[in-house]
Amino acid sequence: MSNTDSSSEKAKASLYPWKENPPLAAQASTGSEVPQRKDRYSEMQSAVRFPIKLPISVRSKSGESRTETQNISANGVLFQVVDTDMPVGSAVDFTISLPAEVLGAEVDVRLDCKGRVVRNFEEGGRHGVGVVIDEYRFDRR
Predict the structure, then answer these.
(1) How many angstroms separate the CA atoms of 46 and 39, rounded?
(2) Half-sphere exposure at residue 109, Cβ-oriented, CA atoms within 13 angstroms
(3) In terms of Cα–Cα distance, which of 103, 97, 83 is closest to 117?
(4) Is-contact 46 52, C-beta < 8 A?
């Protein structure tokens, strides 16, 4: 291999780094001990979060409460709760109210969701819950 071939190969390697470091699934197929998927909480954390405060009605095994969202992503929502009996893995139904004036619509829109608690924490005396959205449906009122 000549000097120009060597520098050409290095340039290609920097343009296509996955050829040097194949994706996890490709590494796993070679017999490496590499997990093939991330857990659901890691996926939720990787999505861009928007600090939006919207009214939310939460229904769980322990009852119904009203609060507001702290942030929302494509995968889930974070909100504060008074009831701390929402363990990780528990099912949660919730409705987020999207005001017409925020959407530029004529009527409010409700986002009915089914999800699971993936994070439960206490911070500064307040209880927070992170929920992954498994199903959702828009409902115009």
Answers:
(1) 11
(2) 13
(3) 83
(4) no
Which residues on adjacent β-strands are paired with residue 58? Answer: 65, 94
Listed in order, strand segments (DSSP E) in the chain are: 55-60, 63-72, 76-81, 91-98, 109-123, 126-140
pTM for this predicted structure: 0.64
* Helix or strand run (H / E) with residue 10: helix 3-15
Topology (CATH) of 40-140: Thrombin, subunit H (2.40.10)
Show the tokens assigned to 56.
């939310």
Which has the closest alpha carbon to 102: 94, 111, 93, 92? 111
Asked if 83 and 67 count as a contact pair (C-beta separation under 8 A), the reply is: no
The answer to whether the CB of 88 falls within 8 A of the CB of 118 is yes
- Report the alpha-carbon distance of residue 132 to residue 77 in Å, rounded: 7
**Dist. CA 71–CA 93, nearest whole Å:** 17
* Domain chopping of the chain, boundaries: 1-37, 40-140
C-beta separation of 97 from 56 below 8 A: yes
Q: What is the pLDDT of residues 11-56, one digit of tens each?
A: 444 443 433 444 333 334 344 444 444 454 454 456 899 999 999 9
